[in-house]
Amino acid sequence: GVVLVLSGFENPLRSQLRAAAVGLGAQYRPEWTPDSTQSVCAFPRTPKAARARQLGGLLVGPAWIWDCQRTGRRLPCGPYLLDGSASSGSDGEGPEDAPPPSRPARKAGKGAGPPPP
C-alpha cells in the first residue's frame, strides 16, 4: 500500500532509493498523485515536499527506506517524519510486513546512506 515520491535526491542515490523501495513492494510516482502515501525527501523544503505536505502526505527521510530494507518489513513512519509533515496517525502506519529485501541487508550504523555496492 505504499506509493512514494522521491524529492531532492540525485542519481545514483535516487535510483538506489527507488530500487530499494520497489524491491520491498512499494510503487513509485515521479510526482505527488492522489494515491501517493509518502514523500521521501532529502530536505523538508522542496517543491515536491510542499505539495505533499499541502495534501496531507507523510514526509520521511531516506533512512526509512534503508531501515525497512534492513529489517525486511514496513516500519512505522513516525520516527522518520521530517519537519512539517503530517502527524503520525493510522494513515500509512500499519504493521503490515513488506516483502523481504531483494538483496542482502546492510549492517546497522549509517541510517541515511545508501546500501553498500
From TrEMBL:
<dbReference type="InterPro" id="IPR001357">
    <property type="entry name" value="BRCT_dom"/>
</dbReference>
<dbReference type="Pfam" id="PF00533">
    <property type="entry name" value="BRCT"/>
</dbReference>
<feature type="region of interest" description="Disordered">
    <location>
        <begin position="79"/>
        <end position="117"/>
    </location>
</feature>
<dbReference type="GO" id="GO:0005634">
    <property type="term" value="C:nucleus"/>
</dbReference>
<protein>
    <submittedName>
        <fullName>XRCC1 protein</fullName>
    </submittedName>
</protein>
<dbReference type="GO" id="GO:0006284">
    <property type="term" value="P:base-excision repair"/>
</dbReference>
<feature type="domain" description="BRCT">
    <location>
        <begin position="1"/>
        <end position="82"/>
    </location>
</feature>
<dbReference type="InterPro" id="IPR036420">
    <property type="entry name" value="BRCT_dom_sf"/>
</dbReference>
